[in-house]
Amino acid sequence: MPDALAEIDGLDVAFASHDGVLMPAVRGVSLTVRRGERLGIVGESGSGKSLTGRALLGLLPPEAKWSAKALRLEGQDLLAMRPKARRRLCGTRMSMILQDPKFSLNPVMTVAQQMRETFVRQGVKEGRRALRERIVAALEAVHIRDPQRVADAYPHELSGGMGQRVMIAMMVSAGPRLLIADEPTSALDVLVSMQVLAVLDEMIARHDTGLVFISHDLPLVMSFCDRVAVMYGGRVVETCAARDLVHATHPYTRGLLEANPPLVNPPDELPTLRRDPAWLDEGIAR
Amino acid sequence: MEDLAQMKQPRTGLRAWLLTDTPASPRQAALGRAYRRWRRFSSNPLSMLGLAILLLLIVVAAFGPMLVTQDPLQQVLAERLTPPGAAHWFGTDQLGRDILSRLVHGSRLTLAIAMLVVVLVVPVGLLMGTVAGYCGGIVDTVLMRLTDVALAFPKIVLALAFAAALGPGVLNAVIALSITAWPPYARLARAESLRLAQADYIHVARLQGASHLRILLRYIVPLCSSSVIVRATLDMAGIILAVAGLGFLGLGAQPPSPEWGYMVAAGRNVLLDAWWVATIPGLAILAVSLAFNLLGDGLRDVFDPRHGG
Amino acid sequence: MIEIERALIRFKTKSGHVDAVRDVSLRVEEGEVFGLVGESGSGKSTLLRALAGLTPLSGGRISIGSRPGSRDVQMVFQDPYGALHPRFTVDKTLREPLAINGIGDEDTRILAALAEVGLGPAYRFRYPHQLSGGQRQRVSIARALIVEPRVLLLDEPTSALDVSVQAEILNLLRRLHRERKLTMILVSHNLAVIGFLCQRVAVMRNGEIVEQLGVDAVRSRDVTHEYTRRLLLATEGYTRQNA
């Protein structure tokens, strides 16, 4: 595909249980992300959505046994690349933001120290003062009101929303081609989530970054993304444009949509998902 | 994901009954859990080695003295310091006593010491720690300061004091060691129970009218006991070595008792000429201590809460 | 049935004190399902724990129309993974409240409690680590109901669950409320969940009640306070600035 930003083809990830049996977590997943596109990957816990995102970055846990037919970023074959070259891509051309800044930011370094390290790793060669100005500018860009104070703060002194904005400043300000956001707002209150998403929206629009938004929240993903892939049991069961999702055909997707209690006119009983074991064996890869 | 987990192959027979997802009685559930723990334990070859050595020790202690033909206390001066050979498999010591039979008889002492210390130390430490952690406040402070006092005593000095006051002997050595050995268990149990006291199921138990005593004994102590047991197993090696050390100093077992530490001490004068007199009991102490360590490591993996404890 | 008058819950900190709940007054009628909605730090969970008697009041008064010394008030917690004792089978977990309160007929009651929450006898002797999050919450609910309480307090009972499992638990709670005529207080950060189960709701922010209104008013957007309006808007998802 000519203008594909990232491609995953036939990804398989499995873990060995302690009796040695291989338990598959991701099975034959194929996805593409176009330039500037926002792809949402939705699934419940255990669907394999997080692992799929991490596979692109090469961040799977060491005990994972994985393979793929193809893994490409901007046409470059990630599978054939040497590990060092691949690591250089992380943080520069592709980046990730995680769920809880309490666990993803280094607790013993101030924000400025971490951002400095990130920028240096990304290839910024500037003096201390210029780097500091860059840090403050990046924090201002994510609408942090007191960037000087936040820059000198430790992660545990920041609220959840502020921490996520710091993460966005660190990971997106260099303008990566692809950003993978793994449940970026799941640990945040709903009003704070909206603010963080607005910041994320602005940043990726500015840099024309492609986004993979991994979440369990289907309505949220539908409202934020262009296209949505629904995963179940390690496979993609449905992919379509976000606005077409309300007319989804796969029973699992329909089930997920209808399981959310609507505020207006709630039914007497919420329709519950009847999991058909046949869904584990099919899989539409598009 | 329950669906994927159900794709495992079906099992038959006793294993199926034990590993079933739907146990039909408390006994089946408990046996199933014990079996799962056993499988985890037995998958580690080193832990199994430790277990094997300890089982050997138990067998030797139980039946050995009946099978060994030679009297451990009989001195045959004509056969002093015979090297290991056909007549005496491990040789004889300076007084012509058969080392093998002394070793075998001494194994009872070693085992008895280990068990005595565990029986004295673990319940005391567990109880004090859980009460301190659960109650908090003044109770916690008082109990922990008591623990600090006991922790401050050096083992050997206390054993010396006991020996001076009550006379030397294995029992007094054990008591002296026990008095100084329980504080770490109290601290361990306290740390665990501090954390557990905040758990939601404890709050629910309170709401349902459970008394503090019931919560302490039925809810908290069982959860602390696994880490305490693991710690005790790992400590066992240290206890045996400590008793052997006391025996070496003449504070523990007294002659002619075939306690292993005393045997090592007695053989040190002839170490260069008759290496077997000190070395063989020494190797026995090493083997048993190592076995306890391996067992403790294996138990710790088994009780890892990630696998459900 | 439940009356809270000017409740104050104050925690001492190193630099003074923090008021988790401030001047809160509300009233819940018998058989009603009342919702407490707010973000983290709003004090809603702290207030619920005070109702359960787990947190002491620093000021004000709480009165629950329950018989003294009874087990009329029971609670279901948020985290299914901390809700059950890891060494107790489901059977033991349900047997404990019966044993503590001297209630007989244990086997019948346990099977009935399991059936009521949609778990068959196959689950009776499982350990918690052999249950999914949704199943654990069901056991928590069964445990709360087995002593026949009149008031059920629920602290974010479905927040930690997948949305399909949440739907099942919400249906279950609705059915139980109807069948047992329970008085329920539900704490949640999710207005849609509150809307499904509750009749009235109080919106909390920074320890205070910002607005109390009926759920119908919420549905028709007939809200007074700005904060409530923002919460309501957020339930519709994100609106993209640059589409």
TrEMBL record, chain C:
SMART domains: AAA. Belongs to the ABC transporter superfamily. SUPFAM superfamilies: P-loop containing nucleoside triphosphate hydrolases. Keywords: ATP-binding, Cell inner membrane, Cell membrane, Membrane, Nucleotide-binding, Transport. GO terms for molecular function: ATP binding; ATP hydrolysis activity. The keyword Oxidoreductase does not apply. Residues 4-231 form the ABC transporter domain. InterPro entries: AAA+_ATPase (IPR003593), ABC_transp_ATP-bind (IPR050319), ABC_transporter-like_ATP-bd (IPR003439), ABC_transporter-like_CS (IPR017871), P-loop_NTPase (IPR027417). One of its GO terms (biological process) is transmembrane transport. This is ABC transporter.
